[in-house]
Write a structure and sequence with these properties.
The chain has helices spanning 25-29, 32-39, 43-51, 55-98, 103-113, 115-142, 144-151. 0% of the residues are buried. The protein has 152 residues and is an all-alpha fold. α4 (55-98) runs antiparallel to α5 (103-113). The chain has a domain at 56-151. It contains seven helices and no strands. This is Transmembrane protein 239.
């Protein structure tokens, strides 16, 4: 005889009732490999994990990584602008040399050709900034005492 899964009901017997908020870390602890790993871990490591401020260096590392990403994106933008401009000017140089009055439209075309690189860089910055912010948010949600320290 198969046993039916039992659903918890609220006071009137409808549905599962109101769900309590569960921290995201509870999802990890449901898995057997985590219990196995914790049971084979030295007690000093478990104490270090639960009592030390290990997330502060991690957060500083993420802030540094975010700064490096902004620097790399600025360099990518400069590279894209100079590469686009040099290719455009090298291909248009005979025309510009022959007819000086077409120089302004060529420069305008060079600036407009850099717009896709600017849009790509802006979207890249937004994506990584959002990702790093979410990681920081998850870290601060795991350790609510640290967010109180930031407010003071």
């Amino acid at each position: 005889m198969m046993q039916q899964p039992r659903a918890e009901t609220d006071t009137i017997g409808a549905g599962e009732g109101p769900q309590q908020a569960v921290p995201w870390s509870a999802w990890v602890t449901r898995h057997g490999w985590v219990r196995w790993w914790v049971s084979h871990m030295p007690p000093s490591w478990i104490q270090w994990w639960s009592t030390s401020n290990w997330w502060q260096p991690l957060q500083r590392l993420l802030w540094g990584l975010e700064g490096i990403l902004y620097l790399l994106l600025a360099l990518m933008l400069c590279h894209a602008l100079f590469t686009t401009g040099s290719h455009l000017l090298s291909s248009l140089w005979p025309v510009v040399a022959a007819v000086w009055r077409h120089l302004l439209p060529a420069l305008l075309l060079m600036v407009l050709s850099a717009l896709p690189a600017l849009l790509f860089t802006a979207s890249f910055l937004l994506l990584f900034s959002t990702l790093l912010s979410l990681v920081g948010l998850l870290i601060s949600m795991t350790h609510p005492g640290y967010t109180q320290d930031l407010d003071q």
